[in-house]
Each structure stands twice: as structure tokens, then as C-alpha cells.
Amino acid sequence: MSEKITNIINELEKLDYKNLFQDDFLHTWDKSQEELQAIFTVADALRAMREENISPKIFDSGLGISLFRDNSTRTRFSFASACNLLGLEVQDLDEGKSQQAHGETVKETANMISFMADVVGIRDDMYIGKGYKYMKDFSSYVQEGYDDGVLEQRPTLVNLQCDEDHPTQAMADLLHVIHEFGGVENLKGKKVAMTWAYSPSYGKPLSVPQGISALFTRFGMDVVLAHPEGYEIMPEIEKIAEDNAKTYGGSFTKTNSMEEAFKDADIVYPKSWAPFAAMEERTELYGNGDQAGIDRLEKELLEQNKQHMDWAATEDMMKLTKDGKALYMHCLPADITGVSCETGEVDATVFDRYRVPLYKEASFKPYIIAAMILLQKVENPVETLKQLVADAKERQKNK
Amino acid sequence: MSEKITNIINELEKLDYKNLFQDDFLHTWDKSQEELQAIFTVADALRAMREENISPKIFDSGLGISLFRDNSTRTRFSFASACNLLGLEVQDLDEGKSQQAHGETVKETANMISFMADVVGIRDDMYIGKGYKYMKDFSSYVQEGYDDGVLEQRPTLVNLQCDEDHPTQAMADLLHVIHEFGGVENLKGKKVAMTWAYSPSYGKPLSVPQGISALFTRFGMDVVLAHPEGYEIMPEIEKIAEDNAKTYGGSFTKTNSMEEAFKDADIVYPKSWAPFAAMEERTELYGNGDQAGIDRLEKELLEQNKQHMDWAATEDMMKLTKDGKALYMHCLPADITGVSCETGEVDATVFDRYRVPLYKEASFKPYIIAAMILLQKVENPVETLKQLVADAKERQKNK
Amino acid sequence: MSEKITNIINELEKLDYKNLFQDDFLHTWDKSQEELQAIFTVADALRAMREENISPKIFDSGLGISLFRDNSTRTRFSFASACNLLGLEVQDLDEGKSQQAHGETVKETANMISFMADVVGIRDDMYIGKGYKYMKDFSSYVQEGYDDGVLEQRPTLVNLQCDEDHPTQAMADLLHVIHEFGGVENLKGKKVAMTWAYSPSYGKPLSVPQGISALFTRFGMDVVLAHPEGYEIMPEIEKIAEDNAKTYGGSFTKTNSMEEAFKDADIVYPKSWAPFAAMEERTELYGNGDQAGIDRLEKELLEQNKQHMDWAATEDMMKLTKDGKALYMHCLPADITGVSCETGEVDATVFDRYRVPLYKEASFKPYIIAAMILLQKVENPVETLKQLVADAKERQKNK
Predict the structure, then answer these.
(1) How many alpha carbons lie under 13 Å from residue B355 in its C-beta half-sphere?
(2) What is the ipTM, given to two decimal places?
(3) Does A339 sit within 8 Å of C115, measured CB to CB?
(4) How confident is the model over B61-92, as pLDDT tens digits?
(5) The CATH number of C168-362 is which of 3.30.420.40, 3.40.50.1370, 3.30.70.940, 3.40.640.10?
(6) Mind telling me which SUPFAM superfamilies this protein's record contains (chains A, B, C) (predicted)?
(7) Chain C residues with CB-CB distance to A340 below 8 A
(8) Nearest to B287 by CA among B136, B109, B56, B98
(9) Do A61 and B85 touch (CB under 8 A)?
(10) Label partner for C77 (CA 20 to 30 A): which of A128, A256, A385, B26?
């Protein structure tokens, strides 16, 4: 066994994460610090195993179901990669973008597709107040099916983005930060600017700023949430971030000045999102099938955005950060000024300088998802990982 | 080896099912009693193995092709689950809903997609006189390809629903009944009400009432087929049911009274379907591309349905059954009054009371499909199952 | 080990193909004679292994990504079959038919989908001057991602059809010819008629006549390219064919007479394609979004085609070939006169007489693709194949 993998597994042995087993991953804030740490550790272990050509397959057969309420090439590939790495085949359940009926219909579908499902990955981020609720309902329906003897096993759920949180993104982002800063112990006191940025496109979800605010405040970091007036995030999530700051010894502050947020920041995460109130209105309009209202709202929102075109990660803005060298982050794809749009979230030269770290940031997501699945399905992960490494089955012959 | 699995395999050893090997599964009535029994037995064995975390993979690689002439999430998942359990990856061949040209084109497609296909699951239920014919043609084309040395192996076919039969549904339904009544030996003399029910939707296939009539009459049961005048099923299938009744010591009767069918029934299966004559007309209209005619027919059929809105599994109707406690069955999804539609096939309270058995009924389908594939591809299933159980490879590590 | 497989592996041992390792397969003319020979040999080995029920899985997990800019059931199935045979799961990246933006966007997508991708199969044949370029760009982007530490491994590329070459088709075609003529040593001096033929459909790609001209001239064959005036292929490819003829001792001639090409031919490959100049114009029109221009061009091209309806593989034409018995080839599907269209590329009786060899021709493609992947991913293929044969893991248990 390579020393690297041995060390990772030894770290895992010290943590208490037993409550992850047979649970779902919906919000980062439902989980303890050690549980999150366990996910990071297993993600590192799986990556090291793959890099050393050791197969981490824990399933000989089985299905991973992707249930996306929105098109998503990247999330689909991340989920498929994670499932495949562990030995699961992906089946997509495409339900279109419609607001699905809850209750009877969802209960039936949840059971019908889960007879042989080991994991269900759900993305449902389009409607405020609906996405997370859908996942909770789905979770209770498969639990009921399992308790009633309908399902041989209860599939575990992974939230691939909802209206409240985007845990696989935020966790991948944080794992990237941990690696960039040389360990979780180095995060304390680092300043993170989670800021709004201008985009010519409409209605981007709030799950990233919310997920980052709620997660990064748990590691003693000083998180500054910056946005123009009217672009508030959900108040419940701000409350979580504030409580985290108290508990974990960091801080969570808000400002309407991008400059203030960028000033001496170690990390900047400038990204567009829609105003919360508008997203709520949109949910209402879609619910009523009010197309005229939807069109009117879109027009208004684009006009509103246009009043804040100066919110961008320009070269000048970057100079304000710590030594002018803050780690620039983005969940991708970014709206790059002069490349993907006329005026966008970030200058082309800034984006280009950070391309490699940005791609690396994204590369953690499949491993984060795989780690969540493994810890939710396997009762004794330390023993299982040790056995996989001892077996040392090649992922690819004669690589 | 667990005693349960040992007993199941011992049962299999007593049966004669050698003709299933290298054949297709198109109609239940093409098969002998022992062949059907073998499929039930292998389905039970595969389920027990999965529940005991023993991998039943018989393929190290291979493809299962799903060829659906209609959208179908549930059937697609059942087929994918069955294939995955045995080690096959599913590839979907989506040909749209058009009436496909036969002959040259089908022959070529059948061969082109089958170079590495181990099984092909076909669903083609939309046109009377076309679906089964298509499967037979497909079967002869791949046989020809195999005989000519084009195909390394001949893929086996599974009928996932045609205009005549719905064998995976009817077999799953019967396996559910066998489990509910404690064994196939307890079916003799049980009264089964296969009845039409009102639905506000249009043109549901006849394959379920036909499949149930033709299969349930083979186990000494008293099958009553009930429907309003004009909703007859195919006469050839009625003839099969009548012959079965004579051969196997049960009965097959017809009535235009739902009450008569429900009276003292042990099992009720109330479900909407389109009139046979209308389905024939529809096939003709589609063939001619007569959209005006299709629209007119739909309107007429919905009007015709509306004259029979009293055909429903209401609480009052259920009281007529044996002790008021008949087993309520449905292939799902059902049209539930006040839930999925204003007036439908079944009262919400009735459906709700039977939800668990209904879901269990559906849970047998993937295992029935897997059993069909296994018995059609493996020359000595008893030996193979014993070996799988002896190897005891975990389906999931450390479950 | 069967003698057949032993002999094939012994043949492979004599060849120099080490430069295939970790490279892509984009053009046949980028490869040496021995490299092509190695691909044929491994394709034969994989086929023999499958026929003897020996699993050739070299991957325990991994993804094959299909990136098709056009619908394609057959190519999709060939690629999926090849991937599955080697142990890779296929994920489709459907980008629609639009001319995709290059640069930034492609670079990002290429990396985002490749974190766990072992192979990417690309089909992009719709636009002259774009398809191959797209593949080269994609290749350099994943190389960059690998060099930068973003990708754990560099996925290998397989060209599944571009504007210049169709290497998996041409290689499968040639392997078919090698088998029909009893060995590569028997190809010298054989006359091949690669000819245009009339089709009522519009805008078929040039990649097949180009791929055949560039590949078949490498084995000492006398290739005659015949087409009506105005249906020239790309001049760069003609140059390659001419150079091959000089290097490898065959010939490459052009004619505007189908009769001249068919005269005493050992092999005929009559197939429709669009005029090169028209395809260039079409690329321009699509680029400008000029729908009126596209419609006008289509009309013109169909008119132009109609002037050459006598270019067809009729019974009379076949009589001109060597003993009237040339091997008739086609990439399928063919436009068959009186079957798939009123007047087409080939007489129904001719097509029918050659159906079995035509299907066999197609059957080589999955093995060619699998051989390309294996040789590009495995460092020591001889050792790996020997080990697979020695392990003799059944592809299907108890077949």
C-alpha cells in the first residue's frame, strides 16, 4: 500500500462519521464537522487510488439514478463518473422542467425506479421553496417503501443542487481550497469574498452563494457576502452562516460594496445570481402558468442586473486582494467579458490566469460525490478501503 | 448457502424447461407450465440472492438493447434493472412512435445493433396487428444473421409489451399472487375479476386484460372478464383463455356486469382499456396518416368511455368481494379518483389501502425479466446458480 | 489457449506499433503500415476471444464518451459495443447539430467531461474544414489538461467520422476485404472501384470515398475513383492517395465513367456523396445562418444529382466486373432502388445477393474501434492479451 493512501486511511480512522451510514446528503449544515472531514478524506483516498490505478469498485452491479429537473451536462458527468468509479451504472430519469406534482405521483415514481437503485442523485434548483422539499419527500417515500418491504434496500440520496444548498459544489470548492492552502488547519482567519457579479443572463440560482456562505463559515474563515441591494440570499441561510461564525470562530459579514469584500481577500468567488424575491415571484408565476408575467419579470430582472455592470472580477478589482493574488474561484461556466459575452462576471485575462486552478476546483466534484455515496452505503469504510487497497485490482490493465 | 436459496434451486431441478434455452419470450401461451414455473423459481432465486447480497452476474460484459416504440419510464427501468443485475449494460434504441417500415429496414437495423447484443427487449403495443408481428420479424432476422455467420451469438428477445400479450407484467402479477396466496398450489378455485374500469384518458392498450386472461386461466383459477359492451378483447385471446380453462381445470367467463365479476372475487384487477375495434381503426388511421380521423376517433372514444363512469373500484364495489377483502391489483399507474383525475378507475381510499401490495406487485417485474434472460441464455441454470451462490461474491462490499 | 488466438498474438509480436500508445486515431494516413496491421490483428484477436467466450475486459471501471454532432444509431452502437467489450461505460454528450464555438468553450467542456474518461469518440462530419479541426483542438485541450495536472489521465480520441476521413469505417472495410481475399498479401494488384452513385437524398459526407481512397491505396491495390464532373473529393486527399500509390506499388486513377471503373474490378464500392464545392458553400451558409441560401443549395444539389441517375450498381453494371462477381461493398444504409427509394444507388437484386457480406463488413467496426482503444491505452498489448487468454474469464457463464 502506498504511504499516501495509508496516511489518508489513518486519518479517516480518527473521525466519527457513523451517522452518515444509511443517511442522505442534502444540506452541509445537517452534518457534523467530522462527517464533512470524513467525506474530504474519502474523496482524497478515492482520488489517490485511481491515480495509483487501484480499482475502488464497491459494487459488482447496481444502479445510480440521476433525476434532473434541468439540463446539466457537467453535473450529469460528475454523477456518472462517481457512480462508474464505484461500480454503479447510471440511468437517467428525465422529467422535464415542469414543476412536478408531489404526493401520490412522486411516491409511486420514487418506488418504481428504486427496486434496484443504490443511489439517487437529484438536481432541482429552479423553484424557491420546492427543490429541497422535493428531495425530503422523495427521501421519506423510499424510506417508507423500504420499511414496507417494497424495496430490498433503501437508495441513498445525494443533493446535486437545490434551491437552498449546492453541497457537492461547495464541498468540492472547499476541498480545492484545503489543497491550495495546504490543509484544513490553514483556513482559520482567511478572508473569503463571496460576491455577486454582473451577468447578461437571467435567473441564476442562489444555491452557490448560499452553499459557500453556510459551509466556508464552518472552518474559521472570515466570509464576506457582497451584493447590490435587492440581491439578498435566503435569510435562513444567512442565519446559518452567522451561527457558524459564532460556533467555529470565524466571521460572517455582509456588504453592498464589492471593493470592501475584495480588499485583502485570500479567496474571491464573484458570481451572478438572481434576487431572492424575484425567484420567489418566478416560482409563483410558473405555478400559475403566467407566461406574460414570466416574460415581464425576465425583462425587469435583466434591466435590474444592468444597473450593476461594474460588479466584475476585473484586473483592477483583483489588485485589491491580498498581495493582488487571491485565489479566484468559480463553479463554471463563467460569463467572461469579451469571450462568452460582451460584459460579464470576469475579465478574460483574470479568468485565463486562473484557468488551471479553476479546472482543478471542478475536478474534485466526482470524488466528493463518490465519497458521499461510499460513506452512506458502506458500514465500515476503513476496513473496506484497506481491503480494496490490499486487493489492488488494477482499474486498467497494463496502464 | 442459505437454506432458502437451496430450496429454491432444488425446486428448479425438478422442472423441465430446456426449451427456453436459446429461445425468445414473446407469449406466455407459447410456453409450457413447467417453463413458466421455472421462470418464477429463478425470479425467486435471483431476488433471494440479491437480498442476501450475493451477486448474480452471469455476464462479464455484454449489451441489453431496449427498443421501445413508446415512452416508458417504468418498463425502461425494469429492463435496465434486470440487465444490470446480470451484468449487461443497456443501450436504448429510440425509434420514435412512428409505425416503422418492416422488411429490409428492420432486418438491417436488427443485425446492425446486435453484433454484441445478448438480449433485446421490445415494447411495441400501439398498433393492433403490428407489435407481435414486428417482434416475430425481428426474431427471424437475428436468427438469419446468426445462421449466416453475421452475428457471433443470437440475441434473445423479451416481449416488454405488444398488441397481444404483456408477458412480463402478467408473470410479475402472477408471481405476486403466488406469494400473496402462499404458493401456486393455493390458486385453484380462486375467483379473479379482470374488469374494465373508467378512465378519462384515451386508448390504453389491451395487452394487460389479454395477458391476465391468458395466463391466470392456466392455474385452475376462475377468471371472469368483465367490460361494457363494445370493449371486447381480441377473440383469439379469449379462445386461448377458454382452452386453458378446459385443460387446467379452471374457468373463463365473460360478463357485462362489473358487480357480477366482483361478487365473492378473491382478486380484482379493474383497469381501463380501449375497445378492440377502435384500436383496429386507429391502426388504419395512423397507417393512412389521417390526422382528422384520429382526432375524431379520440373524441368518440372519450365520449364512449364517459357512458361507463360507474365502472370503478369504489369502496362499495370492494364490499362485494370475498369478505370485502379481495386482493386489489393494477399494473400502475392507476387513474385515482380525486387524485390523478376527477373520476377514475379506483377510489383514493381503496388505492391507498392497497398501496403496499401494489408496489410489491410491481417489484417482481425486474426479477421476472432477469429470469427470462437467464433461462434463455444459460444452458445449465441449476449448475450456474449453485456456482454463483458458492462463489458468494458480494453485490456490494460491506453492505 | 486456442491455436487461432495464439497465432494472432504471435503475428502481433512481430509488428512495431509502439507509437499508437497514448496517441489518438484521427487519420489513417497519420499511421504507419505496421500500426494499421497491429489494429487489424488486435481486432481479429478480440473477435476470436469473444467467439471463444473469453472476456477481453481491460477496464474494471471507466468511461467512454461519445460526442456526436449528428444523430447516428449505428455509429453509436458500434462505439458502445467496443467500449462495453473492454469494460467501459458509455456516456453520450449530445451537443446538437449546431456549429459549436471553438476555443474557450470547447477547452472547458473537454476538460469537464474528461476527469474520468478513458476514451472519447467524436463524430463531426457536417462541415467541411471544421470536423477534423475540432478533433485536433479537443485533443490539444485534453493534453493541456493532463499536462497541467487537471486530468488524472489523458483520454484517447477515436475519430468516428470527420470531414476528411472515416477511419473506423475504412479500416473495418479493409479488414473485411482482407478476410474475403484470404490475407493482406492477396490484395496486391486488385482493382477497387470507389464510385459515386445516384441518391435522391442530399448532402452525404465525403469521408467514405476519401477514407477508402487514402487507405486502400496503401496495400498495393489499384484504386479507381469515379464520379460525375463536379463531384470531386478534397484535393489534399487525392494527393495522399497518389503518394500512397507511388510508395506502396499500386495505383490511383480518376475517371468520370462508372463503366470504366467497374470494368474487371475485383471490388466495387458505389456510394453517393455531395460535391465538395457545395459542401464548402453549405458550411459557409450555415455559418451565416442563411436559411434561404441553404434551401436554395439543397434544391440545386438535388437537381444536379438527378442528372446522374444512371450512376447505379445495376445488374448490368455488375456484369462488367471481374467474372461478373466483384465484391460489392457499402457502408450502409444504402439507397436501394424500389426498396428504400424509387431510384437509388443499387438494384434490389444486387443488394440482396450481397446482403450477408455487407452485414459482415459492418460487423468488423466494433472490433476495429476496440482495437484502436486497446492499442492506445495499453502499454504492452501482447502481454495483456496473453494474460487475458490465460485467465480465460468467461464473458458469459455457461454459454
Answers:
(1) 17
(2) 0.94
(3) no
(4) 999 999 987 777 888 999 999 999 999 999 99
(5) 3.40.50.1370
(6) Aspartate/ornithine carbamoyltransferase
(7) 104-105
(8) B98
(9) yes
(10) B26
